[in-house]
Design brief:
The chain has about 400 residues and is α/β, with parallel strands linked by helices. It folds into three domains: about 140 residues, NAD(P)-binding Rossmann-like Domain (Rossmann fold), CATH 3.40.50; about 140 residues, no CATH class; about 60 residues, Rna Polymerase Sigma Factor, Chain: A. It has 16 helices and eleven strands. It has a seven-stranded parallel beta sheet, sandwiched between helices. Strands 9-8-10-11 form a four-stranded mixed beta sheet, with helices on one face. Helix 11 runs parallel beside helix 13. The termini are far apart. Bound molecules: NADPH dihydro-nicotinamide-adenine-dinucleotide phosphate and magnesium ion.
Length: about 400
Amino acid sequence: MQGITVLGATGSIGLSTLDVIGRHPDRYEVFALTAHSRIDELAALCDRFNPRYAVVRCPDDIARLQARLTTRATEVLAGQDALEAVASHSDCDTVMAAIVGAAGLLPTLAAVRAGKRVLLANKEALVMAGALFMEAVRGHGATLLPIDSEHNAIFQCLPSGMAGLERGGVEKILLTASGGPFRTFTPAQLADVTPDQACKHPNWSMGRKISVDSATLMNKGLEFIEACWLFDARPDQIEILVHPQSIIHSLVQYVDGSTLAQLGNPDMRTPIAHALAWPERIAAGVPRLDLTRHALDFQAPDEARFPCLRLARQAMSAGGTAPAVLNAANEVAVAAFLEGEIPFTAIPGVIDRVLTQLPMSQAANLDTILDADRAAREAARASLPLCRK
Ligand code: NDP
Ligand code: MG
């Protein structure tokens, strides 16, 4: 029996994870569930899965959650230390890292440093702290399995998981992108899009932040950085390919001319089930792919209409704390767009401004990364009034 902690249990990935776990009660038991604002939803999940611990962000929510639980079997904790404690506890074998944004970094890192099997959905953690994160994976013997559908597909198409690319005869990784809901929009149309339109992805149902990232293509920029770290790939070994149907989740090209792809319906339960059971396979409740119903198209991304891709490449080549700055500025800009404070087309401008403004540190230890994250958030907030139009 594997004990599982789900960080971000009330989110889109958290709920899909619990759906898969619920199908296999003989293999998995829930050790801990964590949430931030959706306390009623967390209470319902605790009643269903009976975790040993439930963790909320704010101490004021402890009593609120306790009052909603019908069982006393679950102990309720709060705060950063509690998140890290349930991610690194000796009775937990596997951690699903599914908190959104920079808030996921420290608990995910705690799981890595405790040598856990870590299922990584929280790409922002790896973008912020890539070198340090991967060093901790190696140093503490953690098993890191990608949940992002593209990276999970690449993992499945690589010769032996995450071995060095050249040794396995790999020439290139083709990272697919749906192109988001505004793939065919003109610049004038992009200027008027609303948060609700941005959050309606044509193929995937996801949380609001990643939905906006998909619409700006920053999601692909973050995934490009994520792929560099996960697969120890050079930036020139990763090509981004727009594939509007999201049926092929990514491809790997070999020196002999072979190209391997992983296909499936766009349902996150497939990569989640893959990573949960790896190297075995388990059922995920996902309908089988019917290829007679899909035409598969491919095109190059348009970096002029979607400049976030270029910004992510720039941050990756600058190195050091630049990716953490990119990520923090993006989180602030996306939140401001969702609140109606800035237009959609102002998001890349905020990020560009902050990347240009802030001094980069090449020594990216945890303190300099967290400092860069804080400074970038402040600079991004200060630039919002300048980017309103
Ligand atoms: P959601 O917004 O749906 O869920 C986020 C989860 O994180 C919720 O459980 C939320 O709690 C919790 N949370 C939010 N802020 C904090 C905080 N400050 N401290 C602690 N917990 C917090 O996001 P998704 O599930 O869509 O995405 C989660 C991660 O997975 C992201 O990094 C995303 O990029 C990645 N991912 C998602 C995919 C998807 O299909 N959704 C695909 C690939 C990657 P609460 O709800 O209680 O407020
Ligand atoms: Mg993805």
